Amino acid sequence: MQKIGNSKVQCRLCLRQLYYVGGSTSSLKHHLNAMHPDVMSVSTPTQPTLSSFGVGIQRQCTDSKQKITALLTKVTVANMLPLSLVDNAEFRELMAFIEPNYKVPCRQTLTHRMESTKSEVAKSVSAELESASAVSITTDRWTSISNDAYLSFTAAYITPTWELKARTLANTPMDERHTQSNIAAQLLDVAKSWSIDTKIMAVMHDGASNMKKSGSLNNWVDTSCAAHKLHLATGIDKVTNSTLSKCISAASHLVGHFSHSPLAANELNKCQLAMAVTGENGQPLKLVQYVKTTLNSIYDMFERLVKLRWLVIAVLSLWSHQMPKRWTCMTNIGACWKTCCPSCNQCR
After folding, report:
1. Rounded (to 5) percent helix, strand, coil in the chain
2. Helices 262-275 + 243-260 axis angle, to 10
3. CA 316 to chain CA mean position, Å
4. Can you tell me the distance from the alpha carbon of 66 to that of 99, in angstroms, rounded to the nearest whole number?
5. CA distance to 263, 278, 305, per residue, from 271 (Å)
6. How is the beta sheet containing 8-10 ordered, strand by strand?
7. 61: DSSP letter
8. How far, in Å, CA of 327 to CA of 322, rounded?
9. Model pTM greater than 0.90?
10. 191 close to 200: Cβ distance less than 8 angstroms
11. N or C, which end of the chain has less CB nearby within 10 Å?
12. Tens digit of pLDDT for each residue in 212-254?
């Protein structure tokens, strides 16, 4: 349209003159729809709304909000992340960048999701246990960092398709005294809650005095851990005046020094990198400390110390004239231990 006078325009397509009153363009639009419909069929960009002004291109959420929340719950559970993660400002900023239309759930919502996920997993495990003809359990008492006592309950069974399964069914707090009767009652309660109290054939536990009859009190067969018995049978940590016990003590103090001295540990790492004595991932090796309750920890400590012997001596030159006999002892004991237990990687 081209204006040619007051209240008068001319169509540029058909040169027809049209009139309009009071600035209204309705007649002009009717003319284009009636005489030139092909021109009106061409879509024109619409005016952006005020809510979208200045925020850039909006992306649609590729997955449903329920699916994202379920995956967030799965990640939190699998990696044992704290529930406070959803309150973290940086995490919310990350989610806003990845999915601007997704609202991060609060801590209570995530807790409800975990409870529902637990119920779903419990149903699946219950179905497996129901199909199993026999179950054996492994139990142990342990203490958390906050000095709270717990009793673990792990069930092992074979499915109808001959698949070996091991599920941790409970870690119940032990607030009462750790007597045989209390432990047996706690195990029975867990077994009844999963409806397997009549299917349990044996109970595996350590040789502690209050664990020896925790199964027989429930008419189950008690079985002590063979690896634990073998570890106790050696009695290495009980013979304090033998050459081997002195060697273990000296090696433990040596490893303890590097554990408590960042300067010494850093120097040892530098020596390993300089001499290209590193692990499979190319990172410096760490010394292993002996733990009385861990099977083969003596062998692991001796093996690592012997491997890093000359680098340790280079870092602690004062030890070079004090430990020649003990280095020989560790080398010989390590070779003997490896010969007696060639598959030691499986029982650590």
Report:
1. 50, 15, 35
2. 100
3. 38
4. 13
5. 12, 10, 14
6. 2-5, 8-10, 17-19
7. P
8. 10
9. no
10. yes
11. C
12. 888 889 989 988 888 777 767 766 655 566 777 788 888 888 8
